[in-house]
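quick one, two chains, predict together pls
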Amino acid sequence: MKVVEEYSQLLEIASRTGGGASALGDKDTVYMVVHANKIIGKNILPGVEIDAVETAEGIDAVITVTKGTIIEKPVHMCFGHLGHEGKQVIKSKMVIEDGARAEFLAHCIFPNAVEFLHAMEGEIQIGENASFAYREVHVHGREGKIKVRPKSKVVVGGNSSYIGDFTLVEGRVGDLDIEIEVEARGAHSHVDIRSKIYGKYDDICKIKDVILLNGEGSSALVKARVVLKDESKGSFLGLVDGAAAGARGHVDCTEVVQGRAVAEASPVVRASHPEAEVTHEAAIGRIADEKIEGLMAKGLSEEEAIEVIVSGLLR
Amino acid sequence: MIWGENKLKESLLYVDDITVMREEKEVLKDVSIKVLPGEITGILGRNGAGKSSLAYAVMGLPNYKPKKGAMYFRGQDITNWGITERARAGITLAWQHPARYEGISVAEYLKISSRKEIDVRKMEEALNLVQLESSYLSRKVDKSLSGGERKRIELASVYLMNSQLTILDEPDSGVDLLAMADIISLFRKMTENGRSVLIITHREDVASQCDRSYLMCSGEIVLEGTAEAVRRYFLSQCIPCPEHKDETGETQE
């Protein structure tokens, strides 16, 4: 397949994932498009530095948003592979310098993958008075069992915020094992981690979110919405450790189970400082009859009602 | 049975002698009611009288399937129909405690109700009837809404459904900021063009606004008559009834 075809196919699929992905390819948008281990498109604007090299299995990249830079339009990262089998390993270090503000949208596109490994090893450093959002949306095919292994470590500076959003609702999940560890190191730093996963067939969905509230007055919200059907399995571990005065954290997990799927949730809250407060809520089970019957009384079939409820939950 | 056939012919809904069991207890015993086209029919009774059970049985909830008796809607036997079939045939229910839906906006919820394309102007008009601003269209039908707000949206939703029969289960609860006159005006709008409303209520002032009423007690219909006659009987016999006093001797709300 020619590079131009790969590029246009990836962009076409990415444009369906929302978040203004149609801006991918625009001259006034920062973006990078990677197919397998090839960088097939890139646009850089002042205030953003991307130092990326192709490796045997993927790419290694250092991305910096320089001090005080405010990026109005989201930065788009498209990582994909159009083949049936293979491997893509993305290693990245992202540095958001003091006073910088940016939102990154990562489109991970594997529409034909059957025997495939997509691994991401990320390190994110956020300086003081900065804000960074990293939203990752996956598009997988309906066949096969792609292995997805995103691992990241994030350190958030004082008066800064980090939003991490992971969505995998289109196509099969495959075998997902996501791990994120965030240290809210600076005073009054804020962390917001959200995961939305829709497991089907015999998919495996493992989520592990660990947040360390080490900064005075730091705060965190960890929210997971997982829908499992058929024979899929899911487990969620959300740990928030309040280790500083005034630290506030909350873990909120809802897992909906249909068919013969199995769900497990472990919201772990730990307060290792007497002035910290960490709370949690978790609900696992089938969709309540009252919700389904409420929509059926408006003329929806049971299947349509479930579809509406699930689509709302996974937004 | 000539008498029964006449009732069936003239009624939009005819509930014929149904008994419903829940956990080995009869929650409805030999209940018969009729709802006529273009009328507001009230079901009045104290808490636990079986009013909501009757609403659920008419809506077709699986756990409220009659052990005996039958239900007819527009002359058709709907006793074995499911919820969706009944809703598509023209019956809907505004729940006493409507469910909440994470991620679904009010606008989407109202569109679901209409089952077809609906313009913003109509949705705004429906919200206006329950005294909510159009800014609510972008709100979510989740726990961010108060009980009263959610209830009003449910009323707007069933209004937009334009069903032949709308069952309102305790429609005034939680919406105390709506004046009684506004509530009644909304119910009357729901009866335009021959449509009918069945109101479930424990308030005699709401029931008194109906065209006809039934009084329920312990799962049975104990009185049928004009709204005023039923209201007077309720005030004189049901409110002071010793069977409805709690352990402190106070009459239950």
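The interface with chain B takes residues 225, 254, 288, 290-291, 293-302, 308-309, 311-315 of chain A (CB under 8 Å).
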